[in-house]
Amino acid sequence: QFESSYADAFDSDFCNLFFDNCIFKDSGNDALDVSGSDGSVRNSNFTSSQDKAVSAGENSNLSICNSSFQMNELAVVAKDGSSIEIKDTHFSDNRLDIAAYRKKLEYPEAKLFIDHNELLTVLIEEGVITNFECEKVKNISSVMYGNQYGKASKR
User: In this predicted model, what pLDDT tens digit does every residue of 88-105 receive, in sequence order?
Assistant: First the structure.
């Protein structure tokens, strides 16, 4: 269990990860922040993250299954060449359920695949590969990081 962290609850670079039956609650920034990593999240709960509940960047590959996201600023974010697959996962009362974009130009666009039948709030940048229809917008980075969504990182 990860509770009441000041900044990111768990931050991992270039690792293989497996989270099962975890609870992330009241993260001061991101609950789970991965870069250049491969892994899965199963049967886990993310509540009240002040920024991103799950953030995958820099060519990460992540699967999320049988999990729940409630009352987070941003529930799941894929960026900078990362690929996220989401199955059998519940979202409620998040400011945004899903966001995907490219922040660093040296990486390709993100990929996001959702096996889902709930209505989700999404913010997806043009060029992001998805398996669902949605309106895609330009330059999402300009509204992230505390400008309109999320928050500036604590240092």
Answer: 999 999 999 999 999 999
> What is the band of 80 on the pLDDT scale with cuts at 50, 70, 90?
very high
Long-range contacts of 59-68 (CB under 8 A, 24+ apart): 59/107, 60/34, 60/35, 60/36, 61/37, 62/34, 62/37, 62/38, 63/39, 63/87, 64/40, 64/89, 65/40, 65/41, 65/89, 66/42, 67/41, 67/42, 67/43, 68/44, 68/92
Q: Chain-wide mean pLDDT for the chain?
A: 93
User: pLDDT tens across 105-137, in order?
Assistant: 999 999 999 997 778 999 999 999 999 988 898
Residue whose pair of structure tokens reads 């899965």 in the numeric block:
40
Q: Which DSSP string do the residues of 55-111 spell out, in sequence order?
A: EEESS-EEEEES-EEES-SEEEEEETT-EEEEES-EEES-SEEEEEE-SSTTS---E
Q: If you ran DSSP here, which 8-state letter would residue 133 be given? A: -
Give the Cα separation of 80 and 26 in Å (integer).
Answer: 26
Q: Say which residue the tokens 């992540």 belong to.
A: 62
